[in-house]
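Escalated from tier 1: calcium ion holo job.
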Amino acid sequence: MSSPTRVLIIEDEPPLRMALEDALKAEGFSVSSAADGESGLRRALEDGPDVILLDLMLPKRDGFSVLKALREDRLSSAVIILSARGEELDRIQGFEYGADDYVVKPFSTDELLLRIRAVLRRSQGRTPGVDPSARQRIGDAEVDFESYTLLRGGKRHGLSRRELELLQFFLEHEGEVLERARILRQVWGLEAYPSTRTVDTHVLKLRKKLEPEPDQPRHILTIHGVGYRFER
Ligand code: CA
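Tier 2 regenerated the structure:
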C-alpha cells in the first residue's frame, strides 16, 4: 500500500485515547486525535481522514452533533461510533446520522481493528456496474456522486453518505425486487443491525429529494410486505 490509512480519534478520556493511538499506530495506521467535539470536528474537516472513531459523550460538542456536521459538510470519511451507551435508540440515531458502525465500550482492540477493516473494505470495494465518479440521470433528476448532491427542477439537494450508497445500490439492481433485509445487509453491512425500519426511513428521505411526487413514487416503488423495486 502506498500511503497509510489515516484514522482520527475523537475521545475525551485520556487513557482510552492514548491506548487507541498506540494500538492503531502499532498496526501501521497514521493516527491523529482530538479531546473534544469542537476540535475533533475541525480536525476532521481539515484532514479528511479515512476513518473517524467518534465518542458520543464529548465536551463542547457531542458526538451526534459532530457526526451531523460532518455529513452536512459531505465529508465521506467512514465513522465508527465508540460509546458507553449501548441503547438501541443511540444506535439507530447514529446510523440515521450516517455512522458506518458502532462499538460499545468496553471493546477489545481486536474487535475495533476488525470493524475498521470492515468499514474500509466497504468504502473501497463497492460499485460493480455504476461508476461513482459519473453523474447519473434518474427521471428528471441528476445525481452527482462526487459532490453528494441531487439536482432536480433547478433545486440542489444534499445527500448523506448513506442516502448516496442506497441510491447506488438501487441503480446497480434496477428492476429487481429487493428485500429490506438484503438492502440492510448490503448497504449497511451489519449483521446485528437492529431494524429494517431504517431502510424505510432512508427511502422516505430519498423520495422527498428524488421524486416529483414523493407520495406517488415513480422510481423507488414499494413492494408490499417485501421491500422495494427501483426504476430509473
Ligand atoms: Ca466521553
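Residues 6-124 form a domain with the Rossmann fold fold (CATH 3.40.50.2300).
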